[in-house]
Specification:
This protein is an alpha+beta fold and about 375 residues long. It is built from 11 helices and 13 strands. The protein is about 35% helix and about 20% strand. The longest helix has 22 residues, at about 265-285.
Length: about 375
């Protein structure tokens, strides 16, 4: 039976932290740390007991990732060679948490762009890769801060959280369980990054996005029809973070490095690219769409090389910037928020009838596709 309720994307919102770290700043900090480490361990390095650390460079970072800078919520401690991680003060329980604060800012923009009041919203899904606590749910805190009378819950599918959240919201609407759902993606990725690891110290940034998914009859002009969604997961250890309440009390008993973000980058590249491209092509076929009908692809902003290869496999040619825009250069990898930032910043110029794809992929492995069409 066909549902009488049709979900659409009414609007998106974006919160960008005011502080930014350039590659030049990051490399200067990292190389100072490397010099100090190698000096302090010179004798052990000479004996072969300790491996000398290798410096980073702006050229290495840009060639490996395409990233030139990233926004963060706590800049000075990250650049301090004695600290090299964010320092975010804990807030009392009566004060809005930082993750909820960022999410509320992005949600308010989405609501304003849709001409919608918070009282119109039925549900809040906080879909992100790094939640600052187990409970109460950040989504319920955001719901309370916005004054929404409904329900909320948190969900984590790593870098694919936003697209999984969009499908979940769309399913609520199709089933008649909600008419307006906020999917909020606050990401403080700087907190799970090992800033002392040369191969990954440049990858992540912080941001928050929001997507307002609504029943079509409520949506403003210029909304985006959701043509179809498809999700896929496949277990892999190649991207992992083992931090949790079961191991936080005794980190000295384990290798502390895997309590932060770790990945086998080459394996991820080799395995994820075909997985994503195949899923996109399968969905195009299922929706009776040809690749040349894709006006724009808003891909997950993790690595410029991955995006180039995925786009070329789907389109059959090297994608032009207009076909597959990037925000990776200035935002870095913002996990679940990346493809939404690209959509938020690079969708206003499309015409009614244009078809696009919001696509995310990451740890799990997980892949999510959301095909959309601009409405009149």
């Amino acid at each position: 039976m066909t549902s009488q309720f049709t979900p659409v994307i009414s609007a998106t919102g974006l919160y960008t932290p005011p502080e930014s770290i350039s590659n030049e700043e990051l490399v200067a900090s990292f190389n100072t740390y490397v010099d100090r480490f190698n000096t302090d361990h010179a004798d052990a390095i000479a004996r072969g007991d300790v491996e000398a650390l290798q410096p980073s460079s702006v050229e290495f970072i840009e060639k490996a990732s395409g990233i030139k800078s990233r926004h963060v919520v706590s800049k000075a401690p990250i650049l301090d060679p004695d600290i090299m991680c964010p320092r975010i003060a804990e807030r009392p329980n009566e004060e809005l948490s930082i993750l909820a604060e960022m999410g509320v800012a992005a949600a308010r923009e989405a609501l304003a762009r849709a001409g919608r009041d918070a009282s119109d919203v039925d549900a809040v899904l906080c879909a992100c890769s790094n939640l600052q606590r187990a409970y109460p749910a950040i989504a319920v805190e955001i719901q309370d801060a916005l004054g929404i009378d409904g329900f909320g819950f948190d969900m984590n599918v790593a870098c694919s959280s936003a697209t999984f959240g969009i499908q979940t919201a769309a399913d609520f609407i199709r089933a008649g369980n909600a008419k307006s759902v906020l999917v909020v993606n606050p990401e403080i990725c700087s907190g799970h990054l090992n800033w002392r690891d040369r191969d990954s110290h440049f990858i992540f940034g912080d941001v928050a996005t929001a997507i307002l998914v609504e029943e079509k009859s409520l949506a403003p002009a210029g909304h985006w029809d959701i043509l179809g969604t498809k999700l896929k997961t496949q277990f892999s250890n190649n991207i992992r973070n083992n931090f949790g309440f079961l191991n936080r009390a005794a980190p000295e008993a384990r290798d502390a490095r895997d309590k932060l973000f770790v990945q086998e980058g080459r394996k991820v590249f080799k395995e994820v690219v075909p997985m994503v491209a195949d899923l996109i092509l399968q969905q195009l076929d299922r929706l009776s769409l040809a690749p040349e009908q894709l006006r724009r692809m808003w891909l997950h902003q993790a690595n410029a090389g991955m995006n180039r290869l995925i786009a070329s496999r789907v389109l059959g040619h090297e994608a032009e910037p207009d076909e597959s825009p990037t925000v990776l250069d200035t935002y870095a990898n913002t996990s679940s928020a990346g493809s939404v930032i690209a959509f938020h910043k690079h969708s206003q110029d499309l015409a009614a009838g244009d078809v696009g794809l919001i696509c995310s992929f990451g740890a799990g492995y997980s892949v999510g596709t959301v095909f959309v069409r601009k409405a009149a």
